[in-house]
Every structure is written in structure tokens, then in C-alpha cells.
Specification:
This protein is mainly alpha-helical. It has two helices and no strands. Helix 1 packs antiparallel against helix 2.
Amino acid sequence: MADTRTPSCPPPFFSSDKEIWNAALRAAIKVLSDHQVRGREWVPGSFWDTLTNEMVARVHALKKTED
């Protein structure tokens, strides 16, 4: 069965695969960096803070640079 749902807004225009890749990485970084968890308090300098910062740095390193 075909998907008949329509998006609430049109998808962004990308002129290259590199832009698509970088947009996906920006979205991943945003999700990784969001520490708003109900019932939990984020502790700067904790193990999870250090781990999250390392993950974000590694995802940033995957971003493709201008040629």
C-alpha cells in the first residue's frame, strides 16, 4: 500500500549529497546535545557529559568540508 501521508512542510532543498550528509549530521548533533530528560538533572563534568561531548565532537569530525 502506498504512503498517502503528506508532509506538513516541504523538505528542504539540497544541491548536493554533501549538503544532505551535513544536514543529517547537524540533526544528529542536535539530538545528542539535548539533555532535556524529564525527571533527570544534567551534571556538567559527569561521565555522561564527557561521553556526550566526545560523541558530538566525533560527529562534527564527520562533516564534509568545502572542496
